[in-house]
Design goal:
The chain has 469 residues and is α/β, with parallel strands linked by helices. It folds into 2 domains: 174 residues, 3-Layer(aba) Sandwich (Rossmann fold), CATH 3.40.50.1000; 283 residues, UbiA prenyltransferase (Tetracycline Repressor, domain 2, Orthogonal Bundle). Helix content is 61%, strand content 7%. It is built from 22 helices and 6 strands.
Length: 469
């Protein structure tokens, strides 16, 4: 074989550079994304050019397919000429080719012609000039190219390859790839993070209200927040692709790793938001307002606030506290000053623990600055000091609350609640010691859910609260 023609989107890269470009532009300048979108009236080639001119893609971090790269190296060793042929704009295709250094030529969309389907086939046949060639592709748009190719190599899920074979296609080689799985879709929604939304039940629990209707409203609020939170997580993943791919752990997320198509995220976000809003309409209007504030805040956090020093921590702590407020509004119970103050400090401590752990991971990677954040690795000691201090202030607030008249009105045996203080002190100190050792999970909520000691502390504290009643 004298010529190997390799597709880019979905083949060489587990993803779509048009979608990558769109989210890159949207994150850095939403108005530029709208302006670029207007280029669609001139055709897809113009849209791709407009986005390519404005996007800041890190081609080095793209999720390349190792099997395809190995195939390319195999043909290079045999003296085959390797060409990248793609409907992606030539600016991005050239950048990919330059980074990899394995292609002899690049044929791509040029702002006028969208090199896809029949157009791509015609270009390949013309430039192959009668020489035998092989085509490596992954999509239904490649079917006619597969038919025309002397040798066809499929890079696709087994079900898609089987469907192509029913249409009379045959392949000289099949690189079977796992398709988008239900597990990946569910994982992208981060159901383990729904545990944070249990905070919506706290105001009702602490108000000592056994009314079933109030608990039902709290349950509906929980469902609504879970749906909207999942939409926010997916939106964050789409906006933060480059930073996630540079992260030691986040690079494994479904969208960053290319296990889910980015356009699936575009469908999932509005669907989840709509479902969450629909549930919220069954609840008091103030709850819907709190949910809207949460949604807007998470968008602002993903878009810009997470990049600002300390502001990101304050916003994260505020989002936790907002869950408590929303729970109180849904159940129509009063949220005390004490709960508001305690939550602000304890969640500030946990947010700082999250950053402290991330700084430790970046230090292990020999980096000076955290990608997509406003922190330097050298800030780790100061972040740890601030986080531990916030945790101790939370303990102090709890002590003052236990000593207040409010507790004496609500609890028959308020003295029992003093037992909660050493439990909380133990847990806060343990979290920060583990953080200093570099063994704390980068998400303290995940750590707490998996940590046996945290469960024991929570059960003991809950038992003391019930006993105090």
């Amino acid at each position: 074989m004298e010529l190997l023609v390799v597709d880019l989107d979905g083949t060489l890269v587990r993803g779509d550079l048009l979608a990558e470009s769109f989210f890159s532009v949207l994150k850095h300048n939403p108005f530029a994304a709208l302006f670029a979108g207007a280029a669609l009236f001139g055709g897809r080639a113009q849209l791709k050019r407009a986005l390519a001119e404005r996007a800041a893609l890190d081609v080095a971090s793209l999720p390349y397919d190792d099997e395809v790269l190995a195939l390319i190296e195999e043909h290079r060793a045999a003296g085959t000429r390797i060409v990248l042929a793609t409907a992606t704009d030539e600016r991005l295709a050239d950048a990919v080719a330059s980074h990899l250094g394995v292609f002899d030529d690049v044929w791509a969309s040029n702002g006028t012609d969208n090199l896809k389907g029949d157009k791509k086939r015609a270009v390949i046949e013309e430039r192959a000039a009668g020489k035998p060639w092989a085509y490596v592709g992954d999509a239904d748009a490649d079917v006619d190219i597969f038919r025309a190719a002397p040798a066809a190599i499929a890079v696709a899920p087994a079900s898609r390859i089987a469907r192509w074979k029913t249409k009379g296609l045959s392949f000289t080689r099949e690189l079977v790839r796992e398709g988008a799985s239900p597990g990946a879709l569910v994982g992208a929604m981060r159901p383990h993070q729904w545990a944070k939304n249990l905070l919506l039940f706290v105001p009702l629990f602490l108000a000592h209200r056994p009314d079933a209707a109030e608990w039902l409203r709290a349950l509906l609020a929980f469902v609504s927040f879970c749906l909207v939170a999942s939409a926010a997580y997916i939106g964050n993943d789409l906006m933060d692709l480059t930073a996630d791919r540079r992260h030691p752990k986040k690079r494994r997320r479904a969208f960053a790793a290319g296990r889910l198509p980015l356009f699936a995220g575009l469908v999932m976000v509005p669907a989840l938001l709509g479902a969450g809003a629909a549930v919220a309409l069954l609840l008091p209007l103030p709850f819907l307002a709190a949910l809207a504030v949460y949604a807007v805040s998470t968008v602002a956090y993903s878009w810009r606030l997470k990049q600002l020093l300390v502001v990101d921590v304050v916003v994260l702590a505020g989002l936790y506290t907002l869950r408590l407020v929303a729970g109180a509004l849904a159940a129509e119970v009063e949220m005390s000053f004490w709960l508001s103050a305690f939550s602000l400090f304890i969640f500030t401590s946990l947010a700082l623990a999250k950053r402290h752990t991330e700084l430790g991971m970046w230090a292990a990677e020999k980096q000076e600055k955290v990608a997509g954040r406003g922190y330097l690795v050298d800030d780790r000691v100061q972040v740890g000091s601030l986080g531990a201090a916030a945790g101790f202030v939370a303990v102090l607030v709890l002590a003052l609350y236990i000593h207040s008249d409010d507790v004496r009105r609500l609890y028959a045996r308020p003295t029992v609640l003093w037992g909660v203080l050493p439990l909380l002190l133990y847990w806060i100190n343990r979290v920060w010691v583990l953080a200093a050792r570099g063994v704390l999970h980068d998400d303290p909520i995940v750590f707490a859910l998996r940590d046996r000691a945290s469960w024991i502390v929570a059960l003991l504290a809950g038992a003391l609260v019930l006993l105090a009643r």
